[in-house]
Amino acid sequence: MQIPSIPANEDARVAILRSLNILDTLPEERFDRLTRLARRIFNVPIALVSLVDAERQWFKSNLGMEEALQGPRDESFCAHAILSDELLEVPDALKDPRFFDNPAVTGPTGVRYYAGRPLRSACGMRLGTLCLVDTRPRQLSEDEKASLDDLACMAEQEIMAMQMATLDHLTQLTNRRGFEALGRHVLSACQRFGFPLSVVMMDLDGFKEINDTFGHDEGDQALAAFARLLLDSFRGADVVARLGGDEFAVLLSNTSESQARETLRRLDPALDAWNAGSGRGYRLACSAGVYCEQSPGSVDLAELLRKADQVLYESKRSRTG
Question: Which residue among 10, 50, 130, 185 has the highest number of C-beta atoms inside a 10 angstrom radius?
């Protein structure tokens, strides 16, 4: 059995998936409707909406294999499918060197055929598949492939609707709701493995003056520009969010306070370069507070945010005092 490779963007991909707050949720008619259609259209015994988490695949919709809520990622056909944007079709798993000895093939399920069309998030991350499974070899016609693509597009629209609920439309950063959902997963992992966890709280200096002088549309442009600088300056695995107004937060897992401050310093030259070349008539600058829990223990996310916000407040007060 061939173990599926890990995508190059794995940290960001899993972060997007978990920010949707969809894993381990109850079945929903909007997804079950699609697997019912798939099973009827293609005359297969099993149709799934499968999401590939860090170490497992989890089924948001499962028709035909209802006894299984999830399975190991190492044995997952779908974990192979998310390595490409193209449909993964396995006409006969017994003749495929990747799958011939897979437990799903040799075990009671008796998988012989698989077709998985990757499901992408709004930003293009491959999160899982809409897939067909049969116990006999077969192959889709071009018309059938187009029909499967249509159903997958519908599934993507449903996922996108969930993602939009956790996305700040102006800056395209995670919003407060998404930050809290994803932050709980990050905090739990750090508590489990004993990793340090750092939070950076920031607000945009002089934002009211930008709004008052240049108008709210320009204020929106300033927020969007600052958000892009944050994404460019922090690491791909860091959770960057706009909590509201001109308030931003970054969650850095397995990161000490000194490492968080070092990462934060990358923002300074980015701001300088933007200010030198923007020609907007104002400068972007921010205040920041860094707080680290070296051993997170039983602390909750709200407490971490409060402590980081207090550091930010004290930093601003010391500058104006």
Answer: 130
